[in-house]
């Protein structure tokens, strides 16, 4: 009898669903028992993703409609939800009631406060009663609460790119209480696999655009986590940009150091926080991360610099939005929640 965890991917035909499948197909402790899609229900998985023809487990899978009964009948023990936000509760509540662990990639369970969700998402939270059960699962920063958790909320892609560099510095009280500014660039897969004119090749290629100002919805979870780290209200502004690449996020953060704090203190704090953490690579002073070194992997690369002329600390990060920003982080959380080594199925994947 297999001792592998039986996993389902709900929303398996999307970009983060596809990356989840790629990682889970190679995961030695996971057996994929169900993959859902409304559009492809009844179709073999490899008809939609021919790259996996001949791959054990992939060949035998057929998309099913997203249906709780089907997930239960397949023997699912852990369900990864890779659905557009606003839908996860429809699945999470009945799955949790059936004793099935839920690892959600959407924004639905990231916030502890339902009013904050409404302020940023424009509608009341559909299942506020579940918020207190959920763990905000950024493994390098909240790892202690992940083991054994039943409802895991994976952070957003942009938030991961900001929180990894910023949270240790706020916890150590190294930053001035002045506004922090952030600019990020994301590949087009960040917008999902939907048909939408602004994301067509001819609309995005050879062009870069800012969007989402002044209140991108990710500021809700970033603010929540930065305030928690600092123990005070942290002011932050954020401008995302869409760039014509498939995958990757490059983030640049400008912040002021407190009086007497040096770039050396920043380096010491980051190195102390991330020593032994396999997926955070600290590049060093004046070293600029590059998405080409992280795409396809679960790494986040971080660099820093102190601009003496402007008196500003510059923090830089690069990650793959679909992997460390979504599916890789979800698998990392799966590993930690089940007590598997953190890197299982993720090394270079
Ligand atoms: N793309 C990224 O970089 C990141 C995405 N995320 C989050 O992950 C989640 C998935 O994102 P992404 O993969 O980009 O999205 P996609 O649009 O690429 O995929 C969405 C998936 O959900 C399914 N789906 C859509 N509507 C419904 C519905 N009403 N009921 C059931 N299934 C549905 C789709 O299949 P079908 O329509 O056939 O049912 C598809 O499989 C989102 O919440 C997103 O915010 C998080 C971090 C980064
Ligand atoms: C390029 C692009 O459009 N990126 C998406 C963010 C990615 C995402 O899916 O975020 P959630 O997990 O919070 O939904 C956006 O800015 O809305």
In short:
The chain is α/β, with parallel strands linked by helices and 349 residues long. The protein is 30% helix and 21% strand.
How is this structure best described in words?
The chain is of the alpha/beta class. The protein folds into two domains: 5-133, Rossmann fold (3-Layer(aba) Sandwich), CATH 3.40.50; 158-321, Dihydrodipicolinate Reductase, domain 2, CATH 3.30.360.10. It has helices at residues 15-25, 45-48, 68-73, 88-97, 114-121, 139-142, 157-171, 201-204, 218-230, 263-274, 323-338, and strands spanning 5-10, 30-36, 63-64, 78-81, 101-104, 135-136, 151-153, 180-186, 209-210, 236-242, 249-255, 280-285, 300-307, 312-319. Strands 3-2-1-4-5-7-6 form a seven-stranded parallel β-sheet, sandwiched between helices. A seven-stranded mixed β-sheet has the order 9-10-8-11-14-13-12. Helix 1 crosses helix 11 (323-338) and helix 7 runs parallel beside helix 9. The site of N-acetyl-L-glutamyl 5-phosphate has 12 residues, from strand 10. Residues 11-17, 37-40, 66, 82-85, 87, 105-106, 156-157, 189-190, 192-194, 321-322, 325-326 line the site of NADPH dihydro-nicotinamide-adenine-dinucleotide phosphate.
């Amino acid at each position: 009898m297999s001792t592998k965890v039986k996993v389902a991917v709900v929303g398996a035909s999307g970009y983060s669903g596809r990356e989840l499948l790629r990682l889970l197909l190679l995961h030695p402790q996971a057996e994929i028992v169900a993959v859902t899609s409304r559009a492809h229900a009844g179709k073999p998985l490899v008809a939609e993703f021919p790259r996996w023809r001949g791959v054990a487990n992939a060949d035998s899978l057929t998309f099913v409609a997203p249906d709780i009964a089907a997930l239960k009948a397949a023997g699912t023990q852990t369900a990864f939800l890779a659905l557009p936000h606003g839908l996860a509760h429809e699945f999470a509540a009945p799955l949790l009631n059936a004793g099935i662990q839920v690892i959600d990639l959407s924004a639905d369970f990231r916030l502890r406060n339902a009013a904050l969700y409404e302020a940023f998402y424009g509608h009341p939270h559909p299942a506020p009663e579940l918020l207190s059960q959920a763990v905000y699962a950024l493994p390098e920063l909240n790892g202690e609460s992940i083991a054994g958790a039943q409802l895991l909320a994976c952070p957003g892609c942009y938030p991961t790119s900001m929180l990894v560099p910023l949270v240790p510095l706020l916890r150590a009280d190294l930053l001035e209480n002045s506004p922090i500014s952030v600019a990020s660039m994301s590949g087009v897969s960040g917008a999902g696999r939907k048909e939408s004119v602004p994301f067509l090749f001819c609309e995005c290629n050879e062009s870069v655009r800012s969007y989402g100002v002044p209140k991108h919805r990710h500021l809700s979870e970033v603010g929540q986590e930065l305030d928690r780290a600092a123990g005070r209200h942290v002011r932050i502004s954020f401008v995302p940009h869409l760039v014509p690449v498939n995958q990757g996020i490059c983030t640049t953060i400008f912040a002021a150091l407190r009086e007497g704090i040096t770039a050396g203190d920043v380096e010491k704090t980051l190195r102390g926080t991330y020593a032994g953490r396999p997926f955070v690579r600290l590049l060093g002073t004046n070293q600029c991360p590059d998405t080409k070194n992280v795409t396809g992997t679960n790494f986040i690369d971080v660099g820093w610099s102190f601009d003496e002329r402007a008196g500003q600390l510059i923090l830089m990060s690069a990650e793959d939005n679909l992997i460390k920003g979504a599916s890789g982080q979800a698998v990392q959380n799966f590993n930690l929640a089940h007590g598997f080594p953190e890197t299982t199925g993720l090394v270079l994947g």
